[in-house]
Amino acid sequence: MTQRTRTRETDEDLSDILGDAESGEQAGQGESFRSRTKRRAVNFFSPRYFLLAAVVLTVGTFVGGFVPFVQTLGGLLGLFVAAFALGGLTSESKTLETATGGLVAAGLTLLLGNLTLLAAGGTTVAAIGLGAGFLLAGLGAHFGSDLRDGLTRDL
Question: Which residues contact 36 (CB under 8 A, 6 or more apart)?
Fold first, then answer.
């Protein structure tokens, strides 16, 4: 019995710490710890939006790569423009998902476009490309959502 009381007290302490910040209520009223944790994790990082961002940013990178004379820079510009559009069109700020999608898009582009370079030991180039994809996608999403907020805010 003593163990059961300690567990209940620990659960109550956790529910106080992990209480629902949006409504100000204590968590634990009809909702399990696992479902609350899952809901918070999805609110922090949405897998669906990440997949959408990865597909859109990959397409943007490939389309930007077809710009004559500046294939690599055009791909990065296409990535930034696609991330900017995603940030401007979505109602919530999803910068982390978009930046991670940019990392995947840059990785796919590097893998498909420079397979011989990567096979020859171009890990430094790959790391720089992945970092640039992450950074540009994150900045594009941030600037797009900032523009959307500025255009839709009341004066």
Answer: 18, 20, 27, 28
> What local confidence, expressed as pLDDT, does residue 17 receive?
46
How many Å is the Cα radius of gyration of the chain? 21
Classify residue 155 as exposed, middle or buried by CB count within 10 Å of its CB (0-12, 13-18, 19+).
exposed
CB 107 within 8 A of CB 58: no
pTM, two decimal places = 0.67
- d(C-alpha 106, C-alpha 75), whole Å: 9
Distances (CA, A) of 70 to 6, 7, 132: 65, 62, 16
**pLDDT tens, position by position, 94-130:** 888 889 899 999 888 877 776 766 666 777 777 888 8
Give the residue with greater pLDDT, 78 vs 14: 78
Domain boundaries, the chain: 2-44, 47-152
69-105 burial, b if ≥16 CB within 10 A, otherwise e? Answer: eeeeebbbbbbbbbbbbbbbebeebbbbbbbbbbbbb
CB contact at 8 A, 110 and 118: yes
Q: Do 144 and 86 contact (CB within 8 A), yes or no? A: yes
